[in-house]
Specification:
This protein is mostly helical and 192 residues long. Helices cover 43% and strands 0% of the residues. It has helices spanning 2-29, 37-47, 51-56, 69-77, 92-99, 143-151, 173-184. It binds heme C (HEC).
């Protein structure tokens, strides 16, 4: 009886050893688990940070570390490109759509300015992460400054929550000029 049990155990062990590489092979051939949208986002967010985002990713959060603020701003300023002919004010009506006016049918998610700013006083669903831009055109800001701010906010406020819309190519220079017109034009609802 003992002998049979021993033989059985040995055969079992032999089978186990023999099957091991086959099992490993099967494991390797299994299709890789598909990444969820969120997992892909996490990879893009944490691993594909640009050098400048890395300066901002620290416990101080809103202050770049490992570089002086002046040096940081200077480098960000140098990235700003202007539309042909240097025309920083375009068509305010096109700008209104890009700003992301949900009421008037603008479906742009690229500007998405209302997520963080108020603008047209008729639009009351607006965020307050950034300052209100109602009446912005009456403040006497140079439109070129406004253009540069939208192109790359970090040239003014390093590590700001405001996305670097021109820098990342989310908005084209001409599109930023349209938004500048929406902010500055006396006919724009922002300034009514
Ligand atoms: C995720 C939030 C967010 C989004 C989206 C956003 N901004 Fe901002 N914005 C901010 C914050 C925060 C500030 C203040 C800090 C700074 O200046 O960067 C700001 C500042 C500004 C200023 C300067 C205002 C002042 O009086 O000093 C302007 C102009 C501006 N944003 C325009 C825009 C426009 C136009 C859009 C859309 C194309 C936009 N922002 C999208 C968060 C945002």
């Amino acid at each position: 009886m003992k002998k049979i049990a021993l033989a059985g155990a040995l055969i079992g062990l032999g089978l186990l050893v023999a099957c091991q590489p086959a099992a490993q092979k099967a494991e390797a051939q299994k299709p890789k688990k598909k990444l969820s949208k969120y997992e892909k986002f996490k990879i893009a967010f944490y691993q594909n940070q640009d050098k400048w985002q890395k300066y901002c990713s620290n416990e101080a959060q809103l202050v770049p570390q490992g570089i002086s603020i002046e040096e940081f701003k200077k480098a960000m300023l140098a990235t700003i490109k202007f539309p042909p002919g240097g025309k920083v004010m375009g068509d305010w009506k096109r700008g209104e759509k890009l700003f992301g006016d949900p009421k008037k049918g603008g479906r742009s998610r690229r500007g998405n300015c209302y997520a963080c700013h108020c603008g047209d006083p008729q639009i009351i669903a607006c965020g307050n992460i950034g300052p209100s831009l109602r009446g912005y055109g009456k403040k006497g800001v140079d439109p070129k400054q406004t253009y540069m701010r939208i192109y790359n906010s970090w040239a003014f406020v390093p590590c700001s929550a405001m996305p670097r819309l021109g820098y990342w190519g989310v908005l084209k220079p001409e599109e930023i000029a349209d938004i500048v017109a929406f902010l500055h034009s006396p006919e724009s609802p922002i300034n009514k």
